[in-house]
């Protein structure tokens, strides 16, 4: 670190994304992206007239985008906040609602960025342990007095909490905020979005990087009561009013409105998820019941970290977490058929070379 780094950031632990390697072609199954193209409507939205207008600033209020989200989710535009990916949306929510006094609760095995934001912003936190089977301890979250952040389905486990259980957590303490990160909810068939009409202490965050195949565009949004969204917008306008480019907004609007294409894409992923889980189980791997676009699996034959390295050597990237309770597990993004077959072929080669398993 330099001598000029602010003392408040001395203990910051930066988030580390999955490997982004470019030294050779890879089957990339380590970042929960997709090789499926975005909606055809996205390409149609980028016209010559649109490009000619890029010399002007985008609408800092993102009104057209918010209206598109509101129309699809049966909300009002005043109940929608838009950001440069759900990571920015969540970071703004953390800055807006959490302080350096009351601790925030999230799960001990969950999206690592929650811990990193708390460290960066000086917010104390409490990690609530998952049950032994990696399910969520709903009663512990109900009992916690401070704000709660919950990704559902959970990452990296992929296990989904029923909406009625999330509602129990929200309803248990109306005087504390609950943020539900639904990055993978489109693959689960359930969403907490309708709950924002009934509860003033709930924010639901979604991304267009997964089910809408727009990871490269980086678009996210939050929904909640108007007063919550107004608070977040005030903080955004105090830091970066033009956080969403005109190009990003146009892409987002087109993809958001194409709900039929969303349905088709999620069906493909769900089918491939079932196939991949079955093939891993056939190889005697333990696989958790995922409702996301990835599977969480405990391999046999090789330690998880070593198997991750061997797969990388064969041109296949998966994700390993060197942390307590899950060091023996791998998170594998559900790919398209050719990608899943390439993974399984590489996996068989690794196991055969190591222990003669085929």
Describe it.
The protein contains twelve helices and 13 strands. The protein has 358 residues and is an alpha/beta fold. It folds into two domains: 125 residues, Aspartate Aminotransferase, domain 1; 218 residues, Type I PLP-dependent aspartate aminotransferase-like (Major domain) (Aspartate Aminotransferase, domain 2), CATH 3.40.640. The strands form four sheets. The chain has a five-stranded mixed sheet, with helices on both faces. Strands 9-10-13-12 form a four-stranded antiparallel sheet, covered by helices on one side. Strands 1-11 form a two-stranded parallel sheet. Strand 3, helix 5 and strand 4 form a beta-alpha-beta unit. Helix 3 runs parallel beside helix 9 and helix 4 crosses helix 8. The termini are far apart. The mean pLDDT is 95.
How far apart are the first and last residues' alpha carbons, in Å? 49 Å
- Assign the CATH architecture of the largest domain: 3-Layer(aba) Sandwich
Task: Name the average pLDDT.
Answer: 95
* Biggest β-sheet description: 5 strands, mixed
Structural class determined from secondary elements: alpha/beta
Radius of gyration, in Å, reads: 21 Å
Helix content: 25-40%
Low-confidence runs? none
| Whole-number count of domains | 2
Kindly identify the CATH topology of the largest domain.
Aspartate Aminotransferase, domain 2
Strand content: 5-15%
Separate helix tally: 12
- Order of H and E elements: EHHHEHEHEHEHEEEHHHEEHEEEH
How many extended strands?
Answer: 13
Strand order within the widest beta sheet: 2-8-7-6-5
Shape: globular
CATH hierarchy class name of the largest domain: Alpha Beta
The CATH homology group name of the largest domain: Type I PLP-dependent aspartate aminotransferase-like (Major domain)
């Amino acid at each position: 670190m330099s001598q000029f780094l602010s003392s408040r950031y001395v203990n910051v632990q930066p988030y580390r994304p999955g490997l982004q390697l470019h030294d050779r072609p890879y089957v990339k199954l380590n970042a929960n992206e997709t090789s499926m193209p975005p909606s055809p409507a996205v390409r149609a939205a980028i016209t010559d007239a649109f490009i000619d207008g890029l010399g002007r600033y985008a609408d800092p209020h993102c009104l057209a985008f918010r209206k598109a989200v509101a129309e699809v989710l049966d909300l009002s535009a005043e109940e929608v906040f838009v950001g440069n990916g759900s990571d920015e949306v969540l970071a703004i929510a953390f800055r807006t609602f959490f302080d350096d006094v009351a601790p925030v609760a999230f799960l001990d095995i969950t999206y690592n960025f929650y811990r990193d934001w708390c460290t960066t912003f000086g917010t104390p936190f409490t990690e609530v342990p998952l049950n032994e089977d990696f399910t969520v301890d709903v009663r512990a979250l109900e009992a916690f007095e401070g704000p709660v952040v919950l990704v559902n389905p959970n990452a990296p486990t992929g296990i989904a909490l029923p909406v009625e259980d999330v509602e129990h957590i929200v309803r248990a303490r109306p005087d504390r905020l609950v943020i539900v990160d639904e990055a993978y909810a489109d693959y689960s068939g359930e969403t907490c979005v309708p709950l924002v009409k009934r509860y003033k202490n709930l924010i639901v965050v979604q991304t267009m990087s997964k089910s809408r195949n727009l990871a490269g565009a980086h678009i996210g949004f939050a929904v909640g009561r108007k007063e919550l969204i107004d608070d977040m917008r005030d903080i955004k306008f105090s830091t970066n009013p033009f956080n969403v480019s005109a190009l990003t907004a146009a892409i987002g609007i087109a993809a958001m409105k194409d709900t039929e294409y969303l349905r088709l894409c999620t069906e493909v992923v769900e089918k491939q998820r079932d196939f991949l889980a079955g093939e891993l189980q056939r190889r005697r791997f333990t696989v958790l019941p995922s409702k996301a676009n990835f599977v969480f699996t405990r391999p046999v034959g090789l330690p998880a970290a070593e198997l991750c390295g061997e797969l990388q050597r064969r041109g296949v990237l998966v994700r390993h977490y060197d942390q307590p309770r899950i060091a023996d597990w791998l998170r594998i993004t559900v790919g398209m058929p050719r990608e899943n077959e390439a993974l399984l072929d590489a996996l068989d080669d690794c196991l055969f070379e190591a222990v003669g398993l085929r």
